[in-house]
Amino acid sequence: MKKLAIIAAILAAGPAFADPVHGVWKTQVDDGNYAHITIGNCGEEICGVISRTFNSDGEWKSDNIGKPLVWGMNANGSNYKGGTIWQPSTGKKYRSKMALNGDVLKVSGCVGPICKKQTWTRVK
């Protein structure tokens, strides 16, 4: 009974244990489009899914909504590494890391010596 009470208390306090990177992030424009990425846990790792998409005309329903954009991230303070990021405009996947500073998330992905970087902002 005591274990059940402890588990219930942890579940009730869930948001207090949320990683600071959890939430919705706006990507930079890539190939004329940008997205909102919802970041949370996937098991023990951090992952992000495309939740909304936008182009120059406003919001639109891309076929990419619901697809994972970043996965396999491991937290180390405000830095995240060991993950993979997918670039929808090219279909390529890159080794990825992220660095959180308040409401700004620096995201980078590399294949060999070639790296791409973006700065994402938290959606309020």
TrEMBL record:
- The DUF2147 domain sits at 23-122
Instruction: Name the Gene3D superfamilies for this protein.
Output: 2.40.128.520
Alphabetical list of Pfam families matching this protein: DUF2147 (PF09917)
Its keywords, alphabetically, are: Signal
Check the UniProt entry and state the signal peptide residues, or none. 1-18
Q: What is this protein called?
A: DUF2147 domain-containing protein
Q: Which organism is it from?
A: Actibacterium pelagium
The opening ranks of the lineage are: Bacteria, Pseudomonadati, Pseudomonadota, Alphaproteobacteria, Rhodobacterales
